[in-house]
Each structure stands twice: as C-alpha cells, then as structure tokens.
Amino acid sequence: MDRLEITGGTPLAGEVRVSGAKNAALPILAGTLLAGGPVVLSNVPHLNDVTTTVKLLRRMGVEITFHDGLRLEIDPTQIREHLAPYELVKTMRASILVLGPLLGRYGRADVSLPGGCAIGARPVDLHVTGLRAMGATISIENGYIRARAERLRGARLVLDTVTVTGTENLMMAAVCARGESVIENAAREPEVVDLADFLIRMGAQIEGAGTPTIRVQGVESLSGASYAVMPDRIETGTYLVAAAITGGRVTALRTRPKELDAVLQKLGEAGAAIEVGPDSVEVDMRGRRPTAVDIKTAPFPGFPTDMQAQFCALNAVASGTATITETIFENRFQHALEMQRMGANLSIQGNTVVCRGVERLAGAPVMATDLRASASLVLAGLAAHGTTVVDRIYHIDRGYECIEEKLLQLGATIRRLPG
Ligand code: UD1
After folding, report:
1. Cβ–Cβ under 8 Å, residues 223 and 31
2. How far is the CA of 411 from the centre of ligand 1 (A)?
3. Could you report the per-residue pLDDT of 38-76, keeping only the tens digit for each?
4. Nearest CA to ligand 1 atom 32
5. How far apart are the CA of 94 and the centre of ligand 1, in A?
6. Over the stretch 363-373, which tens digit does the pLDDT of each residue have?
7. Which are the contacts of 141, defined by CB distance < 8 A and separation ≥ 6?
8. With contact defined as beta carbons under 8 Å apart, do 276 and 257 qualify?
9. What is the pTM of this model?
10. Residue 117: active-site member
C-alpha cells in the first residue's frame, strides 16, 4: 500500500488548478445509463472512484473510451446486465447511484448494499422508500437490493433527512417515470444541480434543483449529450486550508467561489485575507498563525461535512480554543485520534471535538481511515515539524487527483512511497 511522506514547515505558495468534482462526476456517470445515445463528458477527474464507476458501467455493457485522460466518450445503448456486484460496490458507496437510473430506464436493478467510507452508519433506506413510493417492488436478498418495476410512476417524495445521493438517485429515477414527481426536503448541494443540468441537457424536464423542492416531469426517453463536470469545491477548500495552515498564499484556479461561501467565511475568521475572482480564490495567511474557528457541519449551504477534518487540522495548530461539531455523520473523527499522535490537543466529546491549538505539531507515522480524514492528515503533516508518513493513502486516491504533484508545485516537501 502506498504511503505519503511529508516534511512540514514550508509555507505553501503559488497556483493550483482545481480538478472536476468527484461528487458530481460519479452521479453524472451513473446518469449516463439513462442516455438514449452517446455522451461525451469532459473535466472528469482521474480518481479511483471514477475508475471503479467506469468498471461498474463497463460490466453492464456500457462502452467507454478515454480521450486525453479527462474526456470520456460513453455509449450506454447496449446494456446487457443490470447488476452492481458486491466486489465493486464494497469499495465505493456511491455505486448505489446506479439504482435509480437502471430501475427508471430498464425496470430492473440488482445493487449490492454499499460499503465505502468507514464513517458511521450510512443507510440507504430513503433511496428505497422513495423508489417504492414510485411503484417499485424492492426486496433485500443476500446483501443485494433487488428492485423491479414495469414503469415507475411520478410521486411526491418527502425525504426525512437531507440526503445527497438519495436526492440524486430519486431524481434520476423520476426522469423517465410516468407523470410528475416532486422531491421535498431535497439536498441543495451544487453537485445535485450539476447532475440536474446534465440530465436537462439530455432532454429531462427538471425544475428547482438547488432548492428544497425539485419537480421532475417524466419524459419517454432521453438523448445523448456533451457535458463538462463542475469543479471540485472540496478539493478547492482543501488546498485553501493548506495555504492557511502553513501561513502561505495559494490561488485556486478554475473553481467556483460562490459554492465555497461557508468555507471562505471560516478561513476569513481564521485570519486569512481572501480574494475572490470570477473563477479563482486566493487565500493569503501572510505568514501568520491561524486563529481557531468554531464549526458546525450542515447540509449545503451550511458548512460541508467533507471539509470538517481539514479544519480540525487547522484548529490543531491555531491560536485559541474552538469546537467542531459534526451533525451529518456519526463517528467521523478518526482523524482527530491520529492528530493526537502528532501532538494535537483535541478531545472528542460526543459529536464535538474541542480543539486547543498548539504552537507546533510533530511529524509522526499516521494512518488514513477515510477520504477526508486522509486529506486532513496530509494538511497536519504540512504544518508539522519533521516528517509525517501517512499510510493507507488509497483513500486519498479515491478523491484527490495528483495530490502530491499539486502540493509539490506549491512548494511542499512530499513524496509517494510505493508500498
Ligand atoms: C454525499 C457525498 C459525501 C458527503 C455527504 C454529505 C457523494 C458521492 N458523497 O454522501 O461526500 O459527505 O453527501 O454531504 O456525493 N441517510 C439516511 N438514509 C438514507 C440516506 C442517508 O439516514 O437513505 C443519512 C446518512 O446516514 C447521513 C445523512 O443522511 O446521516 C446524509 O447522508 P447523505 O447525504 O446521503 O450522504 P451521501 O449521499 O452518502
């Protein structure tokens, strides 16, 4: 297993080009199952989760050709199988996203119950309840969700909890259903909007994506389309925290600052000077130590749970005491335990971490436990005195394109140690 070795202490400086968003690319790739003709996707990030999704689609009979790495030509018109097997789904929870489109378009789907990040119980009951309300017959057999429907019918779906992939799955299922579907308490994340825009490009009739009420008028079929995946707001935020935690100055290019409001506000509170351009953001910490900031995660437009671990690293070296409260997932503080091994003064109290900033962390061998936790350990390593080795970085490779190249370009001392 590969590891990352980081020698900390250098303020990062320079520009970093943001990649396409993992959490938009995955649902959009699943959404190509609905296409009536070829689809061309650009700005698709080169990530392990994308490779897993491509494998999953190819197994079903979807033809996929890669052009210059980031452009994919996808022909979903010869599907033979409607199955997402355990060996692929277990590595990536987002595989559940094929359930809605397969059922909506082909009337059948067998999808293994997902694994994915080890961040607490992550059920899919809302996906299943919503599809049942649209007329599907669903049973759970031998660890598989077995879903069948003649043709789904539009329904009013009120989601008990705001769920991102749940909203996406139901929206995709509704696109070819008979009549109108209304999804209430829908997730408002920009990635939901990106998926809706892609589906609309193929002829879907969707209104309200980005608001709590999404209306979908079912259509008979969709066409193919060309589409560029949105930039990754979490990757952007991670590099901006890298600037702040090292007292440096980094400009993220080809991103969308509007989608980062909650994160930029917190970086401002931490003492960074922030300059926003039409598609760029610069964070300048001017060599100063950050101030600890209180954070409470919430669905968009609140502070993203996927940025919580990175701010935990920031607070660990900041001046002052602050709390980070996680409201979306239970058990999402494994990074805090690893940071303690680097000398951080963090204590976990229920769903809150109390962070008492220390002057300096000390490099140490640490282990990544999930995707964003891994990123936070890299950030802690960049700020620490001495050398940190982050183990199990396959988690990072699921969600960060070329992380060591990008950090090297910003002046970090980092290298991959092949396992
Ligand atoms: C997505 C993101 C992930 C992000 C998360 C929250 C993708 C591929 N992943 O994950 O990076 O951290 O949103 O922003 O886009 N829940 C239920 N029942 C369900 C579904 C969810 O109770 O059927 C609960 C979950 O346990 C959790 C909350 O709803 O407490 C939010 O989860 P959800 O938004 O579904 O997360 P994901 O879509 O899996």
Report:
1. no
2. 35
3. 999 999 999 999 999 999 999 999 999 999 868 999 999
4. 163
5. 10
6. 999 998 889 99
7. none
8. yes
9. 0.97
10. yes
